[in-house]
Amino acid sequence: MRGGRGNLRGVFQHFLLSLELNLRSKQAIAYGYLVPVLFLVAFGSVFRGETPALLGEMGQILTITILGGACFGLPTSLVAERERGIWRRYRLLPVPTSFLVGGVLAARLVIVISAVALQIALARLAYGTPFPAHLLLAAAGVFIVTASFLGLGLLIAALADDVPAVQAVGQCVFLPMILIGGVGIPLIALPVWAQRVSGFMPGRYAVDLLQLSYGKAPGNNEGYFNGLALAVIGVSAAVSGAKLFRWEAGRRISRSAWVWLGAALSAWIITGVAAALTGRLAPRQPPNAGYEAVSENQIAAITYDDLPGDAEFISRLSRPFNDGGEAEGVGPFAAKLKAWPPGRTSDAGQSTRNLLSVAVIADASRDQYEGEIARLVYNDLRSNLQDEQLCRVLAWIVLYPQEGTVITSAPELGLERQYTERFIRERTDLYARKFLGRLRGKIRD
After folding, report:
1. What is the CA radius of gyration of the chain?
2. Residue 151 and residue 157: Cα distance in Å, rounded?
3. pTM of the entire structure?
4. Statement to judge: residues 104 and 178 lie in one domain
5. I want to staple 281 with a disulfide (CB 3.0 to 4.6 A). Which of 199, 220, 306, 344 is the partner?
6. pLDDT tens, position by position, 349-379
7. Of 251, 277, 303, which marks where a domain is finished?
8. Do residues 41 and 128 both lie within one domain?
9. Are residues 176 and 55 in the same domain?
10. Residue 402, Cα to own-chain centre: how many angstroms?
C-alpha cells in the first residue's frame, strides 16, 4: 500500500518537474505561446474588419495554438530529454513507464490549455472578440483536440532521431493542415479539390469542433462526428507512438515502424472515407450575402452530371415551344402564371423560388402538362430577368437551398395538392440547376 502511494507521489512529482522544465525551455515557450500569438496578430490584421472581429476564425486560431504545443513542443521536449539520457535513467525507476509518459503528456496538456486561454483573452482584449458562447462545449472541444494532437506529438517524438528531425517530421504534419487542411486558410477560400482532401486531415475536424462553441447553437451531429474523428486519429497515433517509443539516443527504430506508421495513417484515411460517405466532404459555401454577392467562381463550381433527364420521372421539362410562344393546352395556365402575385415580387430571388416551386408542384402532382409548365416557368424567368442576373439568382438558390421561402401549394393556378417544404426545396434544386445549365451552355436545350 505504501509502495503504491509512493509511486503515485513520485508520478505527481514527475508531473510537476516536467511542467517546470517545459516552462524553463525557450523552445517550449516559443512553440506554446509565442508562435500562436504571432498567428493571432496575423489573423487579426486580415479579419479585423469583421463584426465582431475574428469570431469566425477562432476555431482556426485555437487549432494552430494546440498544434504548436502538441505537435512541436511535446516531441521537441521528449527528444531533447532522450538525447540527454534522461529517459534511459527513467527506465530504471520502479514506476510503470506509462505513468512517466502520462506525466509528460499531462504537463503538456496544462501548457496547451493555458496557451488556449491566453489566445482567447488576447483576442478579447485586442480585437473585442466575444468569449465562447458555450463554455462547456469549448472546454470539451479543447480537451478532445489537445488529446488527439498529443497522440500525434508522441508519434513524431518516436519517429524523430534528434531535435532537428522533430522540425522536419512536424512540418510534414503541420504545413499540409495549414495550407490545404482548413487550419491556416478558411475552407471556403480553398479550391474544391483541397476542400475534399482536407477531410482526410485532423485539422479540419479540430477547427470545426472548436468553432462550434462560438456559434449560436450548441453542438450537433457534426460535432459528434468531429470528436469521433479526432479520437480515432489521436488514439491510433498514440498507440503507434507508444509502440515505437525509444528510451535511448542513437537507437534506430526497427522495420516494424512502417507497420505502426501505416496504422496511424490508416486512421486518417478511414476518417476521410467516412466523411465522404456521409456527405461531409461537400464544398463549403461562404456566408449568404444574397444572390448579388454570388461570384463567377461559385457559379462555375456548380455541377450538372447527376441531374435526371428532362423526360424522366422526376423534374420533367418539355422541349422549347416550336413557335417560340406557348404550347397547346397551357395557354390559360400561362396567363394565370403571368398574373400570379408570388411570381412578381420586388425580390428577384424570392420570386424565382416561388416560380420554381410551381414547376416542382406540377411535376410532383403528375400534371398532364408538367413538362410544359416547367418550360413556361423557364421562359417567364428569362423574360423578366437578364441572363446574368438570372444566373446569379439560380446559383444562389442552388448554393443556399434553405434561404427564403417556398410555395407548397398553388390552388390559384389549379395545383391543389400540397407538399412539405423540405420536399419542395429538394426538387427546386433540380430545376434551378437545369435552368442554370441551359443559361451557361452546359446543358443542350
Report:
1. 29
2. 10
3. 0.65
4. yes
5. 199
6. 999 999 999 999 999 998 899 999 999 999 9
7. 277
8. yes
9. yes
10. 19
